[in-house]
Each structure stands twice: as C-alpha cells, then as structure tokens.
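the two lines:
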Amino acid sequence: MGIACVLMTIEMKHMEKKKLISIFAIIVILVGIGSSVYVNAAQVDSKHINVNGQDYTIDQLFDISEEKTYETYFGIALDDLMVKTGVENPEEHEYTIIGQDGYQQTVKWENMINGLLTKDGKSIFTDLPKAFRVKEIVEIKVD
Amino acid sequence: MEKNKLLAGILVFGSLWGFSECIVGSMLRNAGLPAGAIMTGVFAFSLMAISRMFYKARGMQLGMGLVAGALRLFNPFGGCYICSAIAIMAEGMMFEILWYKISPDFNELDTLKIKSSMGIVTSYCIYVVGYVVTQILTPVFSSADFHIENLIVFIPQILAGGLLAAVIGGIMVPTMFLIKKFDNNLVRNRLYYPATIGISALCWLIVIANKY
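prediction for all of em together
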C-alpha cells in the first residue's frame, strides 16, 4: 500500500512536470513568433545614416572623413567623422551607434578614436570586443 | 560515476563544443547564416543533452561550458572573442538550471511530444540567456560601459532570434534519444581515457594551430 502511494506520488509529479514542459514549449514558440512579427514590422529601411541629427549617405560620409584601415577592414575614422559633422567638444560626449535591426551600443570618445565605419555601414573598434560591431548603421547619436 | 571518468567527460564534451563554436561557428558566420541560433540548437544543446544521457551527472554541463568558453578564447581568427566565451558559459549554466529537476534516467521524457517540448524550451532559453548575459558582461570586460537601454531595445530581436534555436532543439532531441542505448558501453570501454584525452587534445591543437 505504502509503495503504491509513493509510486502514485512520483507518477503525479511526472505528470505535472510533463504538463509544465508542454506549456512552456507553447509559450516559447508563441513568444518567438510574436517577437519575429514585431521585429519585421519595426525594421527601418534607410539608405541614410543620421549623424548627430543630420542625414548623410555613406558616400557623403566617405567624402568628408579621413580614411582608415584596420586588419582587413577599410573605412573612415569615427573620431574624424564626429569632428567633421560638427560635434563640439567631442571628448565630452558618449556615442550611441544604432543598427537597422535595432542593435545599438554606446561607446566613449576614447573608443571612437579607435573606431572606423566601413563602406557597408559597419562599426569596427580596435579596442572593443566584437559585440560592439554594429551592422547596417542607421544612426550615430551624440549623447 | 567515477570522478576521473566524469572529469574526462567534461573535458572531451566541452572541447568538442568549443571546437565546433570556433570552427563551424566561424564558417556559418562567414556564410552569413544565423550562426548563434544554429550553434545553440545543433551543437551546444545536443552536446549537453547527450552528455547528460551518458553520464547522468548534474553540474557536468556547467563544467563543459567553462571548457568550451576557455577554448573559444583561443579562437583561430584573432580578435577578442570574450563575448562568445561568456555566452557559452552562460548557456552551460542555464542548461543546468533547466535540467536540474529532470531525473537522471529521463523518466519524464517518455513521449515524442515531451522530448521535443523539452528540446524547444531548453534551446530557446539557453540562446536567450546566453545572449543577454553576454550583452551585460562584455562591456564590463571592456573600456565601454554597460547601458541597460541598449539591451532593452534589442530584447525583441533576441527573443525572435531564439525561435530558430528552439525549432532546431525540438527536432534534435528525439534523434539524441536514439543514441541513448550506447551510453554505458561507451563510458565502460577500456579505450575511454585514451579516446577522451586524444579527442580533447586534437580539438585544442586544431584551434590553437589555426590561430597562427
């Protein structure tokens, strides 16, 4: 009798676990689908990069800024770009770089000195991990 | 389970995981594929689940995450890969949390539906947690600061990215259970130590050699 009770309790616990696992799986799928729909709807399709409140094409930015190379990457120096686009006292600001997919990273002036913007709109920082590489940049916000 | 056998298991499975992240992951990234979700669903989750079946030991997958994360730091293609290493370690930790209540003989996972559900939940959660943890901790190890608003605005993208990992995880689990029958034979085999140490050494050598 005692053993039967223990077995029944174990079986009930297993049933509860199974139910929970199934419910969580459904929630996960729904969250994933919902987020995918939201992300696709919210995606910005822009051919311009907004730097400090003004829109530029990538070619315009390459025309006004100093070129720079890092390993296999070629682009323009981000610190020079900030100066050329009229940011005053650049060392006193932080810079938020925002990608088309919403990915964004905030860096300091000392990082901008080691940064470049590639022709395909990607940021590369020689002094920061890969997580700071923002693809398809649509905005560089000066905070 | 003998302690030394378990340690050898952590080393070999962690090395295989780290090796796949370095070599296969980089290939997928270069091909423009969603490497994070594919790596989590196919390699990270599968290797952790298979090792859990073979060794039936809690805590092992956290150890595997540490080994794989350490190997990732020796990435062949240069640059700083601290972000990936942190994500891998966080994935190991999350797996441990999710599978803590699952019995060693997997009695609960008796039907295809439950097995797939567990695969979906685990793959999705380890992907999301790995991503979030690395976004928080990477700035700590760099000269830039962590800004919570940068993470918050990107949460929908992370949650969406995990869907592919979840689907892959759901498909992988039933396949993994097919190899469950080999478990004890493999660990009891007299070639266990030479094989585990040899495979681990090979993984590390290839990754380090690729660096130069």
